[in-house]
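Reading a protein record of the kind used here takes only a little practice. The record below shows the convention in full:
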Amino acid sequence: MNHALVSEAADALLAARRNRKPLDALPESAQPTSLEEAYAIQNEVARRLGRVTAWKVGAASPDAEPSCAPINPATLFFGTDRLPAELFHVIGIEAEIVYRLAHGLPTRDEPWTRDEVLAAVASVHPAFEICDTRFMTYGSQPPFCHLADQGNHGALVVGAATEDWRAVDPVRQPIALDIDGKRAAEVVGGNSAGDPVRLLTWLANVGARPFGGLHAGDTVTTGSCTGTIFIQPGSHAVASYPGLGKIELSIQ
């Protein structure tokens, strides 16, 4: 592992956050060229930002290897229906399904099974992830650079809990997303990864290992169901999940 590259990239990404000055690109000497380097940068930034209390995880298809990013308390919001637009460089909203854990799934030699992972779940929630970037232009960099940049995470807004979560079938869950009163997306399931429990299991066994696995109370969002819809400051979003709930968010 090139520790100098990791440190230089983390310095640049953290400076972009702190100064609110997006990067044209990472310095040439600090650009990750492998998955290992991208995750090492991502994890270094997360550790410097503080505790990890949530995760994002997703996959391009039901058979694709998932990817993940740790989330710190500063960008995790419960029961919030309003966020200031100045928190973001760009505002890409996604309706997602979130799992919260009742107890931990710490790193161990024997992989956690799907049933064990499900037994750790306390509740399921409707949620919005706001996608953002520390780069000048969203999607302009090589994929490893965007993965290093917290997988384009901006904020996670979590709605009310559904404790009878076993009645929720995320693959067949209808979701409708309205932006400023106009239907922006309407899907059944909609997650490119297919079954989000596969993602949760992968996260427990692989993605969260650098942080000791998953912990009690951790919040995990499992990928966009509606695609990324870029909105402007002043927009109001409503996502309805029949049988699961509804979440609203204004960005002012």
